[in-house]
Amino acid sequence: MPKVVANESHAAASQDDCKGASRGRSWGLLVTAGVGGTLVALYAVVLPFVTPALRRVCLPFVPATSTQIQNVLRMLENRSGSLVDIGSGDGRIVIAAAKMGFKAVGYELNPWLVWYSRYRAWRDGVHHNTRFYISDLWKMPQLEKKLEEELECNARIIACRFPFPCWIPDHSTGEGINTVWAYDLKHSRGCETKRLEISPETKS
User: Fold this and answer.
1) What is the pTM of this model?
2) 3-state secondary structure 85-131
3) What is d(CA 26, CA 20) in angstroms, rounded to the nearest whole number?
4) Which of 71, 141, 162, 186 has the fewest beta carbons under 10 Å from its own?
5) CA torsion 179→120→45→42, rounded to 10°?
6) What whole-number distance in Å separates Cα of residue 182 and Cα of residue 106?
7) Are 85 and 106 in contact (CB under 8 A)?
8) In sequence order, what are the residues at sequence separation of 6 or more whose Cβ sits closer than 8 angstroms to the Cβ of residue 64?
């Protein structure tokens, strides 16, 4: 009898060991899946922010400062109608212009920033006067030429932080990263009255 009891005890201990090993493998798979999912999600979020900094011309996302926004709005004084922001980031300038009565549109490569811009516009109550699209600035060849040919003659083009290299600004204000340059197309030669068309890659 003692020998039989000893065998039964050994079998029970073996079953417990198997269950423990199975639970350990299950937890290992869960941890691996969790870590893998987290890395994939992190990659999906970070990649749109990192990609612009790896291009030939480094243009990473840098939020517009309140001073820069005020400088842009100063350049828009006594004007009305439509406004297009190419590289709109988190939508601060578009939303500020919409609050001044402009029909404002933003084009931005980073989809996360586009979705966030739409949320901010809805939160601030100007979503009816704003539109945001996912579009790549670098797929617009010869941007200066495109603007000259397709914008109306009374259009004003405003550049923030990065002036147009081939144009001489008609006005400028601010210092450092808050510098804003304004270009009036009526002072450019060969300006024709056309409509600017920047086709969004997707509206999601």
Assistant:
1) 0.65
2) EECCCCCHHHHHHHHCCCEEEEEECCHHHHHHHHHHHHHCCCHHHEE
3) 10
4) 141
5) 120
6) 18
7) yes
8) 72, 89, 92, 93, 160
